[in-house]
Amino acid sequence: MITDITRRNFIKAALAAGAAAAAGIAPEKAGAQETAGAAVDNWVKGVCRMCGTGCSVYVGVKDGKMVAMKGNVDSKTNTKGFLCVKGMNIFKVAYHPDRLTTPLIRDAKGKLQPATWDEALSLIEKKFKEYHKKFGYDSVAYYGSGQCTTEESYTFNKLWKGGFGSNMVDGNPRLCMASAVGAYLGSLGSDEPAGAYEDIEKAKCIFLTGSNTSEAHPILFRRIARYKKDNPGVKVIVCEPRRTKTANIADLWMPFKPGTDAAIFNGMAREIIKNGWHDKDFIANHSRFTKGDGSEEITFEEYVKFIDKYTPEFVESVTGCPAAHVKQASEIFAKSGASLSMWCMGLNQRSNGVFANNLVHNLHAITGMFGKPGADSFSLTGQPNACGGVRETGSLSHLLPGCRPVAAEPWRKKVEAYWKVSENCINPSKAINPKPGMHAVKLFSSLGAENDETKPVKAVVISTTNPAQSLPNTNRFIPGMRDAFTVVIDIFPTRTAQLASVVLPAAFIYEKGGVYGCSERRSFLTTKAVNPPGEAKPDLWIACQIAKRMGLGKYIQWSGEEDISKMNEMAWNDYTGCTANTEKTLKGATYARLKKSVTGVQWPCPDEKHPGTYKRYVPGMDPIFDDPARYGYKIPENVKRIYFYGRPDGRMNVFCRGHENTSEQTSKEYPFLMTTGRVLEQWHTGTMTMRIPETAQAHPNSFVEIHVNDAKKLGIKQGDMVKVESVRGYNILPARVVNMTLEGVVFVPMHDQKADRMVNFICSDVIDAGSSEPDYKVSAVKITRFSGPKNVAERYVVDRKELDNPKFS
Amino acid sequence: MSRCRRIIQWFFFLLMFIVPALNMLEIYFIKGTYISMDVGELAVSDPLAVLQAVFASHEIKAVMIASVTLPLLIAVLLGRVWCSWACPYYLILDGIEALRKKLGLKPLKPVYSESGPSKANFFRYALLISGFILVGAAGVPLLYLISPPSVLSSQAVMLIKHFTLTAEFIFIPIVLIIETFFVYRFWCRFFCPTGTVLSIFKSSKGLRVEYSGSCSGCSRCVKACPMVLDPRKDGASSQCHNCGECVSICPDNRKTDTLKFRIK
Amino acid sequence: MSLFDSIKNALNENPFSGHYKINRMRPPGSVDEKRFMKLCVRCSRCVEVCPYDVVKRSTKTEYGEIGTPFIYAEEAGCHLCMKCTSVCPTGAIDPKVTEMEQTSIGIARINEETCNNYIYDRQESGEEADGMAALCSSCFNVCPLQHEAIRLENGLTPVITEKCTGCGLCVERCPTRPRSISIIPKDMPDAATAGYYHFLKRMGK
Fold first, then answer.
1. pLDDT interval class at A127 (50, 70, 90)
2. DSSP assignment of B35-59, as one string?
3. Which runs of consecutive H residues, i.e. helices, occur in A79-200?
4. Is residue B234 part of a domain?
5. How does DSSP classify residue A664?
């Protein structure tokens, strides 16, 4: 007997009482935000930096301090100015007491001591010059971020590739977008999606795979969910191992064992062709079937033969996805009239990431779901400026601005000429190195102390990212970062700063301004709203100071400026000039235009009058068709429907990719597959979101989600502390017993900074052979009950004191 | 004997802090406070607490009866040994007495009077009965608020687990100040509801101090008795809690059994 | 903190002042308030056994509640590990309640005026957008009985069902200030059923 009164009566009584109680406590509408809004001096336009959606915002400034935030109701990305709880509170980060405000240099005893900018920069100059001389120009590397502004990434990229003649430039987009880049280049011939977010509201079928959109891109998810609610005829298919909030709105949920989805995509392709749902015209005129790396062309029949073994039953046996679901999904996808695929890290962060991406493109090729409204194969980005700042400026080790390979001679020569490398380069080669540099995982495994002959990289500048927490199998990379000359540019103490030799205090995005380019090719300018605290400086200023001291002051023309807004503008103009004759042209997106625009500009945008491009590859929509010669393309006169100008024959590649699972496999000892991901309230390594009181409280620690049957077998109860262990390392996490994952699959969010809850100690560091992107999504682990429940909701962050501690705790 | 008693007293005093600490280390063999405790599968409760719950709620549960069985059995067989051999509050009082002696302060202990024990008994039983009437009427087990071992033990949990004390702790310093400067052991003698409940169950056949009938008449036992009794007369009194101070101090015991514990 | 604030807090938070009536629950499995107040002997065993340190001892004197266990949802909600049900010596917490689904210590109530997702929904459905709508769903994400005790209508607006146990985790995690979700504890707002107050009432006062 629990209660005297019946449950129903109690609820009635409680609700009545609740209404009364609420009357006493009911606050004014919309809480503190709105009251703050009224007291704001002015609203400064900017963009949210807590995911790749590119939500446009206004920052409320009062007395030189940020006090409020609101969405931009005119925005094309976050329609009606919607934000998520991260974005609404982001400005609070800037005033957290942990902010770094002076440069720090690690002394002989291992303590980080405050220093002046001159001391810190002189030390960097001395070390760089010494290493350049002793170990060659490739011994000093730059590791950037998809959160740096375009101007910053471009400047560092220009400094390294043209100024130092070294391609040792990489960034954290290598850990998130590299596979998508590889597949877009391979399948379509040019990086980045053809369509835009507005395809969501034009699609008839939305195929979400490898993305928990509801948590990782909440604002886009709402666009999808609202569109579906208003148009019940629209079908949503979610292909994911977990029945997430995203899957809850879906008409069809296709579960599968992590790492096996390639078979599903091939199975869908087979089902579509077998039933004659394919688009024969598109296949005949716009597709090219190919094997292997894409050089060998095959016929459509050969392709059909290749995928013939992927019967729904075979797919079910490989993936665990019910055969009926495969059939149903194929029908919905092919017959909808306009199908839009969206994916994110679930496909990219995989040992077969490029292949998985290719296979999704294949589905669109055989059904002709390209080039019409609502039909596109759209890769979502995780970071606000991975597209604009890193892919488009080519700030990865194998790329040059315009997202073209450094190895491609004609373009390299053009960039060399534009940058005047032969005059300015301090490297005696006086040219951009044609050999790609090291990708992230290789870079950090080659990083080491001066006297370590096995490690060719001796120094690294790490800006706006936290590799000591975000690299997979982190244990492998920690010693290298600790021993080498590591310069960290960040606004807060991080795990990486804990290993740094020099820590430079950076300015927050709204304290410097700059351009961010989001997933849908849209560039948006953030205007500087307030001054940075203490001696914190914008990364661009830091880049310029390094350039000046390395004798490249003239080469980075904006290094002579002191005003950050002017520096930004000069860097932006230099960048848009550099890519003006590529399909990534933003020549028309001048600073003056971006300042005025409340929506931003989508490339290609060749001149100031051009409105920006919603759909690429389609004659009449894409400005490349107006003057192909200018961009170095040959396009026949009478193009119908679509033309993939990035490909020599204008046809997109349909690859024969098998379902070989190169990810880590379960074994007797490690019988579970662990997958990782985001939650709505937190972002990346939690450096910022763990410092916003509201979001930190909403998700104060990581946990591990275990299926209820597995938990029963292992004797694990809700809340028990569980040891999740792989061959690489272990975590001790509280268990959440759920029935939303598949049996044998566990899930851990990735945001916690506490050493025994940093999930990347467990994650597999297998990399994709094509894109060198690590496989965060599939790791074999074993699960054991560690202890009973413990209160671990501690919102742990690395603080200033922790920086002197060489061990993670 | 008195050293043995001291060791056991300290054991119970420290246990009060160790049990919650063990719980935090997830050792659940022993758990609880001196109001209620589980040792392995054995449940033990303060009879006072359970009686109050019975009075307040008018219901008796099997678990209640089971958990008071052992304490009551001990009370019947060994008398109020809880008070002198285990109660943490009693240890503090012993400490205060030793401190006063060390500081050379005048002893507070009153002179023994014949009517003393019966007056004290009347007072404390009356208090207990009125307390229970209040509990029954109010429907709230309030007597825990004035039971020092209950308060100490539950506050020890608060201290170990939350590093705070809650308001009812204030009772302890107030009583201690009175005990230290004004009235000798007045709480144990006149008020303590836990002790009084245990007294009810003290049997005349159980452990008691027995006097052989003749002695040298040095009266050291009277001086030593912490409850202001004359062990020669009041050995079986419900006030005596079998601390054994009189037995160990009696000089005549060396020759013949003059003042001894006896059971049955 | 200024001197004035310290004095104000000391006065307002003294042990003799009233308790807040919402967001304050008994441990899971507690019998109804009237019997609870009679049975609870203030032994602190539930406080001791709680691995999350969320069961706290009351310091308020109102209705003789001092020493009884409470969970203050705004500080920390109950994770429903059900360790406390088995230790109660008098059955004030029912030892037969061993599964979280059996628990009923209150019910959550959402303030639709201030809840982030309700504001979002209204603006999405046509109310004029002011750029102040922020999506969250933290209450749904943290609920131990997801989809049962709480579900998201249209994937957006949280709705509490009858299965809500009143654990208060959603209150703890709610990112709005003041909280947009609160627990109405079972029986608690009804002062008539608690403690000696009840006795006085019976006596006609």
1. very high
2. SEEEETTEEEE-HHHHHHHHHHH--
3. 85-89, 117-135, 150-157, 178-183
4. no
5. P
pLDDT in tens, A439-465: 999 999 999 998 988 999 999 999 999
Among candidate residues A443, A413, A410, A406, the one with its CA nearest the CA of residue A430: A413
pLDDT value at residue A33: 46
Shortest distance, CA A79 to any CA of chain C (angstroms) = 9
H or E stretch including A696?
Answer: helix A693-698
| pTM confidence score | 0.86
Residue type, A288: R
Sign of CA dihedral A382, A384, A387, A391: negative
Q: Which helix (DSSP H) or strand (DSSP E) does residue A694 occupy? A: helix A693-698
Beta strands in B33-148 (DSSP E): 36-39, 42-45
For residue A59, report the phi and psi dihedrals to the nearest 5 degrees. Answer: -100, 125
Cis peptide before A749 (omega within 30 of 0): no
Written as six digits, the tokens of A787 are 């202890």
Distance CA A463, CA A171 (A): 9
| A410 pLDDT more than 70 | yes
φ, ψ dihedrals at A745, nearest 5°? -115, 130
Domain membership flag for residue B185: yes
Does residue A84 have an active-site annotation? no
Can you read off the two tokens belonging to residue A258?
């992590």
Which residues span the domain enclosing B142? 2-203
B121 belongs to a structural domain: yes
ipTM of the complex as predicted:
0.87
Show me where the domains of chain C are located. Answer: 14-199
* Active site annotation includes A51: no
Which of C113, C124, C175 is nearest residue A222 as measured by Cβ atoms? C124
Contact A172, A491 (CB under 8 A): no
Q: Which domains are delineated in chain A?
A: 7-80 (2.20.25.90), 104-172+385-564 (3.40.50.740), 178-380 (3.40.228.10), 672-804 (2.40.40.20)
Instruction: Give the model's confidence band at A6: pLDDT under 50 very low, under 70 low, under 90 confident, else very high.
Output: very low
The domain total for chain B is 1
Phi, psi of B9 (to 5 degrees): -60, -45
Q: Which residues of A774-801 are buried (b: 16+ CB within 10 A; e: fewer)?
A: bbbbbbbbbbeebeebbbbbebbbbeee
Query: How close is the nearest chain C Cα to the Cα of A2, in Å?
Result: 6
Residue A119 has pLDDT above 90, yes or no: yes
- The residues that bridge with A62 in the sheet, in sequence order, are A65
Of the pLDDT bands very low, low, confident and very high (cuts 50, 70, 90), residue A809 is confident
Report chain C residues whose CB lies below 8 A from the CB of B140.
Answer: 37-38, 63-64, 195-196
Q: How far is B31 from chain C (nearest CA, A)?
A: 8
* Chain A residues touching residue C39 (CB < 8 angstroms): none
Does a structural domain hold residue B10?
yes
Residue B153: exposure state from Cβ atoms within 10 A (0-12, 13-18, ≥19): buried
State which residue of chain C sits closest to B44, comparing Cα positions.
Answer: C89
Cα–Cα distance measured from residue A622 to residue A612, given in angstroms and rounded to the nearest whole number? 9
The H or E element spanning position A266 is helix A261-274
Which residues have C-beta within 8 Å of that of residue C10, sequence separation ≥ 6?
none
